[in-house]
Amino acid sequence: MKHLSLQRLSDLIKQRRNEKNITQEQLCEKTGINRNMIGRIERMTYVPTIPQLEKLADVLSFDIEELFVDHNKPGVYTAFRGGHMTLEERRGTEHLMNMMVAAKQQIMLRKALHHEA
């Protein structure tokens, strides 16, 4: 399974902004994303929405797929904890996983729609 890497997102946005000589304020103007949110993305304290990711990718010329990393590392804590999780914790974990899968599917669908246009 893959997940969005906030570290990659942060590094990529900073790198592309520097390469294009764009300030956070200028990126704000080009994307419509609040400058404070851009700062929070760069500090890894905010997860952008799919439309925000798409705007950033368009303006800074990167592929959203670059931001996803494999999550196939052994989950020792998760495996250890799994047998002792409460029903509420299990439901929360299931809900989070479903949200991640839905977000990934939305990105892939939007990509496919953009390629057809």
Question: What is shown here, in short?
Answer:
By secondary structure, this protein is mostly helical. It has helices spanning 6-19, 24-31, 35-42, 50-60, 76-82, 87-116, and strands at residues 2-4, 68-70.
Structural description of this entry:
The chain is mainly alpha-helical. It folds into two domains: 1-72, Orthogonal Bundle (434 Repressor (Amino-terminal Domain)); 74-117. The chain contains six helices and two strands; from the N terminus they run βααααβαα. It has helices at 6-19, 24-31, 35-42, 50-60, 76-82, 87-116, and strands at residues 2-4, 68-70. Strands 1-2 form a two-stranded antiparallel sheet. The radius of gyration is 17 Å and the shape is globular. The protein starts with a strand and ends with a helix.
Structural descriptors:
117 residues; mainly alpha; 434 Repressor (Amino-terminal Domain); two-stranded antiparallel sheet; globular
Which segments are poorly predicted (pLDDT under 50) over 5 or more consecutive residues?
74-82
State which percent range the strand residues make up: 5-15%
CATH architecture of the largest domain: Orthogonal Bundle
Task: Give the helix tally.
Answer: 6
CATH topology of the largest domain: 434 Repressor (Amino-terminal Domain)
Structural class: mainly alpha
Q: What proportion of the residues is helical, as a percent range?
A: 55-70%
The CATH class of the largest domain is: Mainly Alpha
pLDDT averaged residue by residue? 80
Task: Map the helices and strands.
Blueprint: E1 2-4, H1 6-19, H2 24-31, H3 35-42, H4 50-60, E2 68-70, H5 76-82, H6 87-116
Antiparallel strand pairs: 1-2
